[in-house]
Amino acid sequence: MPVLCSSCSEKRAVLKRPKTGHSLCKECFFGAFEEEVHQTIVAAKLFKPGETVGVAASGGKDSTVLAHVMKLLNERHGYGLRLMLISVDEGITGYRDDSLETVKRNQQQYELPLKIVSYEELYGWTMDAIVRQVGLKNNCTFCGVFRRQALDRGAIMLKVDKICTGHNADDVAETVLMNVLRGDIARLRRCTAISTASEGDGVVPRCKPLKYAYEKEIVLYAYFKKLDYFSTECIYSPNAYRGHARTFLKDLESIRPSSIMDVIHSGENLSVREGVKMPVQGTCSRCGYISSQALCKSCVLLEGLNRGLPKLGIGKHHRLHEKILSQQPLTESEQRKLKSVDF
Amino acid sequence: MAAPVAVHLEFGQIFFWWGGVCNVNLCVWFAGDMKQLLVWIQQNLLKERPELFVQGDTVRPGILVLINDADWELMGQLDYQLEDRDNIVFISTLHGG
């Protein structure tokens, strides 16, 4: 016996929304989903008319839905935005090259300009080459750091005013949990922000219009709308720390679907005790990017790769930054510690 | 035991990619409910790493199940009795976006 939509009471319900518990038909679901993203954008004042916005697109489910919904809402509500797609090619054979084909199709489907920036041209290293040197344990650190900068570089090349990414509610909740588990107070304080302010040269402000959208709803939206997206897991991700937070969160969600929003809510309302030492924002002495250390993470990681010292960016070696900057040679025991990699 | 009915199973691309399922689209004769179907899938279709698909009695959290294009939560989940020409789709949410 089919369940009727609780909104229109006419059509058959196709899903039960985890957020509200309501059963909705396809059309009412699309309407509710799109309206909620619109409300998120309006309430947080994410965009101003006339702005050029770069949609970070990977060809995956979140960014495909983001591109689709941004285009739709821009037209429906007259945001007055000029939209573009920015994609990052990390150089992962069998994963990224396939998903980039999807982005190129998206470009034609949504009729938006597309810019692809690659690690190869920006850093001289593909993820394949990085994993060959670094192994499978800390490779995600490299990728995440490099991608952040790569997106900014792409955005600057395209002269966009803002970037928007497809991070969803599950992602944000996972990040809150990860930062609690790792004791990263500085990140814990920042990670639930829906947008970042412009923090200096070379950094473009970015926001997350899908911040309150459940991953389950994003997948179902894409499925029912028959959106073209690429769905496999990055081949280098199995050991990523985030996987643990994700598994935990998914188990919680199956017992209590509102957990995801509740974790975000907790993260948003945390305040840090007085007297806790917080990193101070400065700039990298080498490349000028924002950094809380003398050298930004990207430069440190790159230095490590180029010198055959893969562990240079992993763990805490801040004392060595000064040495690297002034081009002093490292002692033998320092070199040995930084070289060792467990595969 | 009810008479077997024709059931169409569809797996999202990612299940094939894991090396778990070798057929992403197939029709089977089956009699029973979803719980029994999952057992059947585990025994007959999952080549390796069944833990990526099933957890205990049910699918791994993060995997969505649609019965005739509707969320199985609306149909009784594991207790749903399969009917003739039912279309079951398994979609994963557990990958990058």
From TrEMBL, chain A:
Keyword set includes Cytoplasm:
yes
Domain Cytoplasmic tRNA 2-thiolation protein 1 C-terminal, by residue range, is 282-312
Q: Which residues bind ATP?
A: 56-58, 62, 88, 166, 171
Q: What is its EC number?
A: 2.7.7.-
GO function term, MF aspect, one: nucleotidyltransferase activity
Which SUPFAM superfamilies does this UniProt record tie to the protein? Adenine nucleotide alpha hydrolases-like
Keywords (alphabetical) are: ATP-binding, Cytoplasm, Nucleotide-binding, RNA-binding, Transferase, tRNA processing, tRNA-binding
Q: Does the keyword 4Fe-4S apply?
A: no
Q: What's in the GO CC field?
A: cytosolic tRNA wobble base thiouridylase complex; mitochondrion
Main location group: cytoplasm
The UniProt similarity line reads: Belongs to the TtcA family. CTU1/NCS6/ATPBD3 subfamily.
Q: What is this protein called?
A: Cytoplasmic tRNA 2-thiolation protein 1
TrEMBL record, chain B:
Query: Would the keyword Magnesium turn up in this protein's UniProt record?
Result: no
Q: Which residues carry this modification: 1-thioglycine?
A: 97
Q: Which residue ranges run through the membrane?
A: 14-32
Q: Which positions are linked by Glycyl lysine isopeptide (Gly-Lys) (interchain with K-? in acceptor proteins)? A: 97
Query: Can you say where in the cell this protein is located?
Result: Cytoplasm
Keyword entries, A-Z: Cytoplasm, Isopeptide bond, Membrane, Transmembrane, Transmembrane helix, tRNA processing, Ubl conjugation pathway
> Family, per the entry?
Belongs to the URM1 family.
What name does UniProt use for this protein?
Ubiquitin-related modifier 1
The UniProt entry's coiled-coil ranges are none
Function recorded in the entry: Acts as a sulfur carrier required for 2-thiolation of mcm(5)S(2)U at tRNA wobble positions of cytosolic tRNA(Lys), tRNA(Glu) and tRNA(Gln). Serves as sulfur donor in tRNA 2-thiolation reaction by being thiocarboxylated (-COSH) at its C-terminus by MOCS3. The sulfur is then transferred to tRNA to form 2-thiolation of mcm(5)S(2)U. Also acts as a ubiquitin-like protein (UBL) that is covalently conjugated via an isopeptide bond to lysine residues of target proteins.
Q: What is its main location?
A: cytoplasm
Q: In which pathway does it act?
A: tRNA modification; 5-methoxycarbonylmethyl-2-thiouridine-tRNA biosynthesis
* Modification after translation: C-terminal thiocarboxylation occurs in 2 steps, it is first acyl-adenylated (-COAMP) via the hesA/moeB/thiF part of MOCS3, then thiocarboxylated (-COSH) via the rhodanese domain of MOCS3.
Q: Name one Pfam family in it.
A: Urm1
What GO terms describe the biological role, i.e. biological process, of this protein? protein urmylation; tRNA thio-modification; tRNA wobble uridine modification
Q: Name one GO cellular component term.
A: cytosol
Query: By its UniProt entry, which InterPro entries does this protein fall under?
Result: Beta-grasp_dom_sf, Mopterin_synth/thiamin_S_b, Urm1
SUPFAM superfamilies in the record, alphabetically? MoaD/ThiS
> What Gene3D superfamilies does this protein map onto?
3.10.20.30
